[in-house]
Write a structure and sequence with these properties.
Length: 292
């Protein structure tokens, strides 16, 4: 047992890798991004008494409480949003909604607009996935669509910024593959979440350097319209392929569906309408009433 802990300690300073393996395949830590700790599903190897063993990266990285992604790992994020045309549109109400979610056990909040985020911060001390929904004429992209919205969220100070990472043309005529490298260069310490609609978009987002990939937009783009939601198949493919965290989001309506997401291996899950939109919840129940 003593040898085990000695090797565990030593592994932080010196690691022996199998012949032909590059240490970067196992462990990548960028000191310039103090809150952004990247790790793969690989196992960090060490040698003890000549026996090759491996320790999960997550065991070695337990002391990472400041990392927002670790705070929401295997936990629930509740989306607290109301658009201007909805009855609950109010930063005050969204703050109370976030507080209610916190009391219910939520470990993170997804919120829209700087105004709502400011109010939510007054109510809860939880990681916030922040977005700004803004519609631009001539573009279908509206979730944090341009550099301007990212700048606003960064000025406010948001743990994770989520943005549309689909292959659609953005309001300024660029694509995500053109915009995101500029964002990463400008905000090296910021965590970014890619809201994707397809497997290919998820792969691209990971290659571009997004810190996590979400399934948010499956079923909401022209190429994915009509898909059965929640999109379990999409989630499973991403989980089995990517080394960055996968966050499931989109029409998770029941505790059973949420559990299935975790069984598939997602890093975290976001639930919104099923918890925080009483008008939509009422409409679901009314379908049963009108069907009788």
């Amino acid at each position: 047992m003593g040898c085990f802990f000695f090797c565990l300690f030593a592994s932080f300073r010196y690691v022996c890798y199998p012949k032909g393996m590059n240490g970067e395949n196992y462990f990548h830590f960028n000191k310039k991004r103090e809150n952004n700790l990247h790790y793969s599903k690989s196992m960090l190897p060490y040698f003890c008494k000549g026996t090759y063993k491996s320790i999960s990266m997550e065991l070695l990285l337990m002391n990472t409480e400041k990392n927002a992604l670790n705070k929401i790992k295997s936990k629930l994020v509740v989306s607290c949003q109301a658009l201007p045309e909805e009855p609950l549109h109010s930063s005050f109400i969204m703050g109370k909604m976030a507080y209610a979610a916190y009391l219910g056990g939520a470990s993170g909040i997804r919120a829209n607009s700087v105004e709502d985020i400011k109010e939510i911060k007054k109510q809860v001390d939880l990681p916030i996935i922040g977005i700004i929904k803004k519609v631009y004429e001539g573009s279908e992209v509206f979730i944090t669509p341009t550099m301007e919205e990212v700048d606003e969220l960064c000025r406010e100070g948001v743990d994770i910024i989520a943005m549309d990472a689909t292959d659609r043309v953005r309001p300024d005529g660029s694509t995500i593959s053109e915009l995101f490298p500029k964002l990463r260069a400008k905000y090296k310490d910021q965590l970014f979440m890619a809201d994707c609609s397809t497997y290919e978009e998820g792969l691209m987002a990971a290659e571009l350097g997004f810190d996590c990939v979400g399934t948010t937009l499956s079923g909401y783009t022209a190429s994915t319209k009509g898909r059965a939601l929640p999109d379990f198949e999409f989630v499973e493919k991403l989980v089995n392929t990517l080394t960055v965290p996968v966050i499931s989001e989109g029409v998770i309506s029941t505790p059973e569906e949420l559990k299935r997401m975790y069984d598939l291996g997602v890093h975290a899950a976001v639930v919104g309408s099923a918890i925080t939109r009483p008008m939509e919840i009422t409409q679901r129940f009314m379908k049963s009433v009108t069907a009788t």
